[in-house]
Amino acid sequence: MKFGLVDRQGYVPDMNYGEAGKELACFVPSDYEFEQVSYNNGEGEVKVDGHVWRFFFTQEGIGVELMGGIVTLKEAQAFLQNVKNHIWGENNQQVQIFLSGAAPD
Predict the structure, then answer these.
(1) Tell me: the pLDDT tens digits for 71-82?
(2) Residues 6+ apart with CB under 8 A from 100
(3) Which residues, at least 6 apart from 60, have a Cβ–Cβ distance to it below 8 Å?
(4) Is 26 in a helix, a strand, or coil?
(5) Are 17 and 28 in contact (CB under 8 A)?
(6) Positive or negative torsion for Cα 23, 26, 27, 30
(7) What are phi and psi of 86, to 5 degrees?
(8) 25 phi and psi, to 5 degrees?
(9) Could you say which residues of the chain have pLDDT below 50?
(10) Cβ within 8 Å of residue 29, ≥6 positions away
(11) Coil, helix or strand for 35?
């Protein structure tokens, strides 16, 4: 399942990547323990609580995709809200969370 984090004004903050092997710490809130599974050009996958999440950039903002594991919608929403707050700050009300998918032809 794919999600999009989109600022209505197109703003994505500068990402401060972590140290080698933890570059994707810029996406994962600090109160989550994670294992970085892959990393390439500022994007990649992390394992959090047995679930694999992929972070990537889209034309509209930041994409987040559940690659492995099962979560409830409530769990996904809480994780995405925490990611949003981690990247844009808790007071930024301009960022919206969307379910995303391929547009039909």
Answers:
(1) 999 999 999 999
(2) 2, 3, 4, 58, 63
(3) 4, 6, 10
(4) helix
(5) no
(6) positive
(7) -65, -40
(8) -60, -20
(9) none
(10) 82, 83, 85, 86
(11) strand
